[in-house]
Structures are given as C-alpha cells and as structure tokens.
Specification:
242 residues, alpha+beta, 3-stranded antiparallel β-sheet
Amino acid sequence: MWRIGQLATMTGVSDRTLRHYDSIGLLVPAAVDRATGYRWYGVPELARLERIRGLRRLGLSLRQITDLLDAPDDQLRQALTETVDALRRDIASLTETMAAAEDRLAADTPILPRRSRVAARRLNVRRLRVGHPAELATLCPTPSTVLLTWLTGHPAGGFAAAVATGRGGESLTLPGRDVVRVVVPPGHGVVRAGQDLFDWLHRNRLAVTGPTLEERLVDADGASATVLEVPVRPVAEPAIDA
C-alpha cells in the first residue's frame, strides 16, 4: 500500500489532483486511516488511475470518465467517436480562423469582412446606369439610405445601380441569402472598401450572386457608418480528370 504522496511521486500526478479525484468519487483510496486521515492506495487504485490518465489523453472530460470508467467498451467507443467529431469541428474552426488572420496580415487593408445569413428584404428603387463608381455621389446628391450596384468585381466599364426611393419607383425583393458584410472603416472610402472587399472574395473563392447593397446608417447622435453587403456562394472546385 502507498500513501498519497508516494502514489503522486510514482505516477507524476499531484496530491491535489488525487484528492480531487477522491472528492468526486473517481478514484477512492483503498483505505483511510481514521486517526491520521492518511489515504492509502494499492495496485487496483494504481491501475484505475492509469486508466483515468489514459482516457484523459484521449480527450475525455472528467465527467465523461466518471460515467465511462466502468462502462462497457461499446459505450466508450461511442464517446470517443463523438469526441473525435468534436475535435475535427474544432480543428476546422481554428484552421478557418488562422487562415482569416493570415489573410488579414497579408492584405494591406483595414476592412474586416464577416459572413452571415440575412433575411429577405423588399425595396422600392430607381434604377441608374453608372460609368464609374465615383459618379454615384453626383447621381445621388442626397445621401441615400440604400444603394445597390450590380458588380462582380472591379468595374471595367459601366454598370447598373439602383437607389432606394422609400415610396414609388420599382419594387425589388432581395431574397434571403448568404452574404459577406463589412463596415467601411472611417477615412477609408466606400469605393476603396468595395475594391478591397472584392479582392477578399476572390482570395476566399467566393462568387457574387446578386447586387451589392450599400447602406448608410445614422445613429441618434448623428454619427454615420456605411455597411457593404455582398451576396455570395462558394466557387466550385475544378473537376479532376481520372
């Protein structure tokens, strides 16, 4: 039999951890001296501790180990399958986060695009034909709440646009869609932000599926911000010949 300190030294597990395992009923000592309170452990407890440590290395939580330590092997296999699935999701999420951070470091732009899902939206609009993005300011001398532009990348010539009218004009419904949104950073300029956003879409293999929505928002203090919203879909991977 070994005292708790001896078991801790043998296994590399701290006294505190062993006491915690005892308190939650995961690893109960073989005996406890009533006079001194010393905990004593034998070979069965050593074997149980090593099994606990092995299951911890497989990614199981203490709560799961408490339920599975003495359970049939098929229950353990099911728990491990679920753990592997969760770890794969975590790895995919971390990989996506790392790629986004690397892209931000490589790109000389302050925009921070974000993918989301938006509901359908109905607008009344007046359609325009624009030769260059810089013309939009003169075509819409009064700041519009919503402006739509039919572009799939950097404009190489004229393009279609539409201005929300509130009432009157043509009725236009934008369906529920997957979008990439970005708030234009102060001092960056909407045209430049739009160009940077199209570059970001290209790097992330996303295709534009409808008009870009430019919305100018004003808070109660009169401060304004412009939001760009582009409907997107992933670009299909090219087929590989057998």
